[in-house]
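DATA CLASS: polypeptide
GOAL: derive structure tokens

***
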Amino acid sequence: MLLFRGASKLDTFRLRWHACEKVSTHGQENCQIHVSNASAWIFSALRCKPLTISLDLYGFANLELPHALFTCSSLEHLELQFFDSRRAATEPTYVNLPNLKKLKLRCFKLSDPVMEMILSGCPLLEELSLDSCSLNFSCMKSDLLRCLAIINCRGSGLVEFFLPNLVSLSLKNEYPGKTKLSLKNTPSLVKVSVFYHHFVECYFSGAEFEFFNCLTTVTDLELYGSGVKELLEKTVPNCPIFSNLKQLTFGQWSINEKLDLLCQMLQHTPNLEKLTIVHKKDITYVPKKHERSGEVKEKCATGQIPFRCEHLKVIDIRYSDPSGAHELVGILLQNISQGERVRIDLSRF
């Protein structure tokens, strides 16, 4: 239908196709047919001046993206997602997308010239998501970018960000890598989400204190994963006071393993209004002898690491295993002086 609809305007074109690649001659012929069909559909969609194009493709290692895809003046939202680690998506040679506001790239190689070309060729770009990309650029500068997500990306060096109007930042890495991220100019940040499964060689390894110093303007902070726990162990005692922080989501590890870490973090959030704790039992964690005897529990329960959150209204505890959840409630109530005014919700996930 797309091939015969002419050039009448199209709001959205989405192509989600996971083709099977085979090594046989017959399989290669089928693959070439798939590539030809996909190319024809993309060209037809571009003639219709769409506002949104979303390509979600697996098994198209030979697909060459048309140059017109990077010069379509009508586009406001573009998603190019490839799900084949063997394929490094073809770098555009020229970008001119004057009305593009949202861009999502997956499995792209991004060098300094390519990143500069994207940012200069998309003068209205406000939201950028990079997933499983090779970050081979050293600097990202934009006065307009408001939302940035970096997911499972890898590189070999330091990447500096100069984004004065960045409002939202999401960092997720489930695999260790060598890319280091440095926030140089982000005074407008209000929402930050960080998830690290591994701490070793995480995105800001070696610049942890610098990273936390850039979060003093944040009002909504999410810190997830065992890698983040290790990061906090290094930085929390000396991190700045987060006076603007209203909502904190914390955990996805066994909170009872490091209760003092939670207490120390709360010492730096005097204006916190909502605390969400994600308590996940770590099956690999073996309590030490003094922990099994209850020494740690007693230490925390006596309030030796007190914190004052006078504006705290809600504590939301989400747990995968009830073990330790009720103990956690008791410790929080003993450390919060106005505990009777705090609503505590427990839910299982």
